[in-house]
Amino acid sequence: MVSEVARDLEIHPNVIHRWQREYWEDIEDAFLGKGHMKPREEELRKLKKRLTDVTEGREILKRAFVIFSKHP
Questions:
Q1: The domain containing residue 58 runs over which residues?
Q2: Helix (H, G, I), strand (E, B) or coil at 21
Q3: pLDDT above 70 (res 71)
Q4: Would you state the pLDDT for residue 65?
Q5: From residue 28, how far is each of 24, 35, 44, 50 by CA, in Å?
Q6: Distance between CA 43 and CA 52 in Å, rounded?
Q7: Same structural domain for residues 25 and 46?
Q8: Number of folded domains in the chain?
Q9: CA distances for 13 relative to 21, 25, 30, 66, angstroms
Q10: What pLDDT does residue 10 have?
Q11: In terms of domains, do 27 and 38 share one?
Q12: How many CB atoms are closer than 10 A to CB 10?
């Protein structure tokens, strides 16, 4: 069965076996649909965005401090 499908898709049978293994390892989050991320990936994306926002805010405050400290 796997070899037939692999031949039809023109891929190596090991690719299908890997897909099966990945599916069974994380069955709850398998096939989330287009544009959806696994909960861990979504959390990581949000944390990276938050870090970027905080870093940018800190840089703005640093520049403002330099500007206002030059003028009495």
A1: 33-72
A2: helix
A3: no
A4: 92
A5: 9, 17, 18, 27
A6: 14
A7: no
A8: 2
A9: 13, 19, 20, 62
A10: 94
A11: no
A12: 6
CB 10 within 8 A of CB 16: no
Residues 40 and 24 in one domain: no
The residue among 11, 15, 34 whose CA lies nearest residue 23 is 15
Q: Which residue has tokens 């979504």? A: 42
**CA nearest neighbour of 29 among 21, 40, 19, 20:** 40
Amino acid at 38: K
pLDDT tens profile 14-66: 999 988 888 888 777 777 667 777 888 889 999 999 999 999 999 999 999 99
CA angle 60, 63, 64 (to 5 degrees): 85
User: Is there a single domain that holds both residue 45 and residue 21?
Assistant: no
